[in-house]
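Researcher: Please generate the 3D structure of the following complex. Treat every line as part of one assembly.
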Amino acid sequence: MHEPGDWLSRRTFHHDDFSDIAALVARKKERGLSISLCFPTLNEEATIAKEIVIIKSELQMRYPLVDEIVVIDSGSTDRTREVAAEFGAKVYLATDILPDIPPFKGKGENLWKALYVLEGDIIVYVDADIKNIHPRFVYGLVGPLLSDDEVRFVKAFYDRPIALDQKTVKPSGGGRVTELVTRPLFSSFYPDLAQFIQPLSGEYAGFRECFDSIPFPIGYGVETSMLMDIYDKYGMDAMAQVDLDKRVHRNQTTVALGRMSFGIIQTFIAKLRASGKASMASELYKTMIQFELEGGTYRRRENRIDIVERQPIIDLPEYRAKFPERADRA
Amino acid sequence: MVRNRTARYLFVTGPETARRYILEKSVLNGILKRTKELESSLESMRELLISNAIMLGEVPSYAGTWQSDDEMASVDYSVRARFFADRMTELGVDECTTDPLGNPIGIIKGTDPTLPPILVCAELDSLYTPSGDIHYALDGDSIVGPGLMDNALGAAAVMALPEVLRREGVSFRSTVMLAGIPNSMRESKNLVVVDRFLDCLSVRPKAALIVKGGELGRLNYYSEAVVRADIVCERRPGARFAPLNMIIVANEIIDRLLAIELPQKPETTVTVGMIRGGYKYGAPATTVRIGIELRSTSNDALSALSGRIASILDLVRHERRVDIEYDVAAELGAESLGWEHPLTKAAVAILDELGIELGVYPSVSELFYYLKRGIPAITVGVARGNEYHQDRACASIRSLYSGMAQLVGLMLMADEEAADA
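Model: Done. Output below.
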């Protein structure tokens, strides 16, 4: 295993390193690969059209880097699916994918099910709430995968401003959950993974086998869990991170971030136990307890967050039937 | 509605020969047909047109500088100009260069290098720019975002032309120059950058198209005489019997401006558009700035009006014992290409062919600088939109297909004229 600083310098890139898109397309052809871009959505009508148009224009019509753009929707109640289809994306309602399997709700569920419908050898996941979408979000992520045969998985990081309102952009301040929860946990149990600048970023790309051979928690813990599993299976040298500069997205309340942190901690501990790195004398409580101040009185709010994990999709007969070459290699 | 193009719009100037008339009529009809076809086929380029507008518009027009490769250059290049230049290069112009002022110019070489070029240009600035980052959105048939209509979309339309022409297989005998003019209000005087840009051209274009985001259907082929000026009233330190409050002085000036008798013909107007002064509810204002615009269809009438205003300001300056400055920010003259000019007629015919309502009115912007140099020029818009100077400025995507087709049609017309000159 390399020294941490070694990995950081060798496996940290900037999107500018890959801005020669024609060269990436040539490399993709040379290696005989195809690339799928997946936007997991839930009520993203305000941003999804722009995301699709920019990527389609720049990375499909001008440079044939991305072979398909797919939206996997969790059941939006706005016009997300209609708008996405209108601008030429393939659109799936998550519950319509593998309909015989009892559905769950959550981003992880979407990402997992996406693997069944996406056709590409390389899968790129990009969150659909990005206001400043730019082709770099995709070519920056696939660049290391196409350029370096060793790299199997790439994670984005940013200088993350948060859109506070229409007019004010805070220059930094994202990543509270990262700095207060995930990085301390990684530092304690997976110090190599603590080198990811933003381990919770929602933009990452990897070869299909990276994703189809690992379990997917359906909820908040999916990014954390994914890093741990890919690290265990492939090691740090197969992983990289890329600076995509600035990402502007919706801010989340501290209460929402609290629930996210709860989910991450639950997922993390479950994986520690499964790997034998930690043992617990009893089961964890599954309810996040928070308080609201209403009319001078504190009101207790409880959210039950069950950690449900989808099995590696490669173990699913339907998936193996659709991707027999993957089944053979597995 | 039944249109009788050939009867209404003869592409003829002056005492032409019958042969020229017949040739022009058939050429005109061919170009009109091609323009109409383009309107439909451009829909297939929706993503490129939208992407161009979004990516250019999200680069703040006021932002930073980029250093020219020429290290000796002292020009303050705008980042948006850099983007415009890079993008045109990516989209396939034959050459992309900057003039000595840093204005990016893409060149599409014509098949006949002896012909004068056709210039298509757009102001790169966005007149309205919000604080903070700029993010555009798509909402149904609309692109939405600050600065879009004036003039990110106009610039994006020019920037898209190399790809549009390539995909549609359109070529020209004349060389086409695609220019973006950043910081046109730099130094805040008289659109001085436009003036200098034209000074820098080594060859006089056969025709120039000035492209604005909106409004599709506009046709400016003449300019009004305009003066935009700030009247600055300041308390004179130590002046005896001088009023303390400059708002009162400003009020007197405005009253006197409004009392000026203005001719209806030539039509002449005074608009008090801005007023700014004071710093505290309970304190007399020490400075007040009044922004006015004078317009006239006659240079002489405007000159007379300017003299009258100078006299009013002198009067108030002396009677009230205050300092009054008259600071002219822009001064444009009245010029006209003429209704009968082939370029004007071509624009009318194309808009008619596309079924777009014609909106003729005078330009109070850069058109004057082209016309005063004898460059045949018109200003046109490429999209229908709303809220031009608000956060939610928006443009209809569908109308952009017509706007782009209009541009290509006009370039083809200008190319015929250049070849025939």
